[in-house]
Amino acid sequence: MPIEIVCKIKFAEEDAKPKEKEAGDEQSLLGAAQGPAAPRDLATFASTSTLHGLGRACAPGPHGLRRTLWALALLTSLAAFLYQAASLARGYLTRPHLVAVDPAAPAPVTGFPAVTLCNINRFRHSALSDADIFHLANLTGLPPKDRDGHRAAGLRYPEPDMVDILNRTGHQLADMLKSCNFSGHRCSASNFSVVYTRYGKCYTFNADPQSSLPSRAGGMGSGLEIMLDIQQEEYLPIWRETNETSFEAGIRVQIHSQEEPPYIHQLGFGVSPGFQTFVSCQEQRLTYLPQPWGNCRAERELREPELQGYSAYSVSACRLRCEKEAVLQRCHCRMVHMPDSLGGGSEGPCFCPTPCNLTRYGKEISMVKIPNRGSARYLARKYNRNETYIRENFLVLDVFFEALTSEAMEQRAAYGLSALLGDLGGQMGLFIGASILTLLEILDYIYEVSWDRLKRVWRRPKTPLRTSTGGISTLGLQELKEQSPCPSRGRAEGGGASSLLPNHHHPHGPPGSLFEDFAC
């Protein structure tokens, strides 16, 4: 029959404190040797978490109606928060933007814009030679023949020089310009620069960006005022209609910045003879957003600082370059108004983004009829023309600033990252009472539990041989025999069985045998 020996030791109160200290040191050493403590259970974590409602839904105890209601409330609030967060994220990813118009700021000195004007008729009929008519037949629609009536099949002319043709046959500003004034000072044709457009030979006032003329006052009389004769008697007769045939009489005008080439056939406006046209301008400074809110062309993202053939990037310059590349790819040539730069045509569609910083001029146009009866007779005598000619050919163009103010229009992000974080924080606090630190608490608890389970998989703890409960130590008999330092005994004298009890009746035992028997 196995026998257990139970040893219960109780120390005195004065000896308990050092013993407890030693036991604590031993436990700390054992804890350090065994590793970190076991992770917290869900109930313990819920009781200390800052997430509202989690402590009540996961409290220890039986699962009653109260805990069930708290769990449902927590799940409902969490679902509502996730729905609102998804809606906010979708709204942010659409990258909404708005246009903010700042109040006009007074500017003491504002640079006057460039003014480009073209006669709608590109070639003067009296200046065209037979060779010119032959080469321009597809543009003008006139039949190619010489003075003797020979048809095109029998005509031979040298290769044309379009620049020379435009310079010779285009309307000359010195003949068209009858009067010119800028800010109260007289000007002339020498203040205009020649530029080529789809309308042929055109002229630009204040074209040099390095020496731009300032406008020192606003209102009429403080800008550019010119009187022009459009010379309708030089307009080409219409023999047949072509893509370039025009039925209008007058001039085309474009107001633009000096860095931007004229794109007058698309962006210009018409001025009719027999009227004085007033153009009131206001400088507008536009700021657009780059990706991902907009599609403007940011300078810091460019591989090339400028377009070939132009000193600065603009939408007009980009469109002209696209036209040149398309014509170059089709017929290996270019038109006179296209940039003179080397390079082949590009494949695919041509995209011209708007620059992120742009200056343009808003316009308000009004007009009055000229001349009146008295001025018609005076102008007819002055320019040696009849009154009918004055009414059909003369016009006055007055371009001025309404006031020396500039209007700033800026495109801004309507919903940025800071607004998204603020809305998410508000929704999180409203529905679940959480914050960023609460999310860190949850992640920390998940990491703690996951790391503990991984360690359990990697190594399994050994089963201890001894167990201790309170102050009572229990040893099995077999354990005691294995760990006993005493030698095993045979039978006692007289054939008695061996015993673990003290042998007080052994008269011949060696000294100390009683202690050894008791210890064993």
TrEMBL record:
Homotrimer. Heterotrimer; with other ASIC proteins producing functional channels. Belongs to the amiloride-sensitive sodium channel (TC 1.A.6) family. ASIC4 subfamily. PROSITE patterns: ASC. It is a multi-pass membrane protein. This is Acid-sensing ion channel family member 4. Residues 469-512 are annotated as: Disordered. PANTHER family: ACID-SENSING ION CHANNEL 4 (PTHR11690:SF13), AMILORIDE-SENSITIVE SODIUM CHANNEL-RELATED (PTHR11690). The gene is Asic4. Keywords: Cell membrane, Disulfide bond, Glycoprotein, Ion channel, Ion transport, Membrane, Sodium, Sodium channel, Sodium transport, Transmembrane, Transmembrane helix, Transport. One of its GO terms (cellular component) is plasma membrane. Pfam families: ASC (PF00858). Its main location: membrane. One of its GO terms (molecular function) is ligand-gated sodium channel activity. It is found in: Cell membrane.
